[in-house]
Amino acid sequence: MALAFRGALRSVARRLQVRSYADAPKGDEMALTFAAGNKVFYDKKVVKQVDVPSMSGAFGILPKHVPTLAVLRPGIVTVTENDGKVSKIFVSSGTVTVNDDSSVQVLAEEAHPLENLDRGAAQEALSKAQSELSSAGNEKAKAQAAIAVEVAEEIVKAASG
């Protein structure tokens, strides 16, 4: 009896674990919510594509993308709207969630449009972070400085074009 129960349970579990493409609610539409502590960039707006930098590598999201949860790394999120307009927004960190209904949520710690980035200020921040990293006295200070260096390097890259 217990053996038959385990076999049935495994069969059900296998069916639940099957990954497939999502069914979009209205054809090939994808609703994007993109927010940070400083601003809401998109609020359930239907877009064509979202490209994100994640800790496991950058990837693009289209309608019917397989459900995903990823951690954002510092870099540029590119949003291609249905009319072809492209927005590029720098994010420091955060998460991206792709749901089975083709909705996407990008939640960033901080986010700023590329046109708002100041390359000179980014260079100064990078120099300061590198200095703090070299003079860090303990592991916690080193880790915090290393994160600041990574973010500053990505801001400099983004601000440079």
Q: How would you describe this structure to a colleague?
A:
By secondary structure, this protein is α+β, with helices and mostly antiparallel strands. It has two domains: 20-115, ATP Synthase, domain 1, CATH 2.60.15.10; 117-159, Up-down Bundle (Single alpha-helices involved in coiled-coils or other helix-helix interfaces). The chain contains three helices and nine strands. Strands 1, 2, 3, 4, 5, 6, 7, 8 and 9 form a nine-stranded mixed β-sheet that branches. A hairpin with a 4-residue loop joins strand 7 (94-98) and strand 8. Helix 2 runs antiparallel to helix 3. The longest helix has 21 residues, at 139-159. The N and C termini lie far apart (66 Å). The model is unreliable at 1-5 and 12-25 (pLDDT under 50). One of its GO terms (molecular function) is proton-transporting ATP synthase activity, rotational mechanism. One of its GO terms (cellular component) is mitochondrial inner membrane.
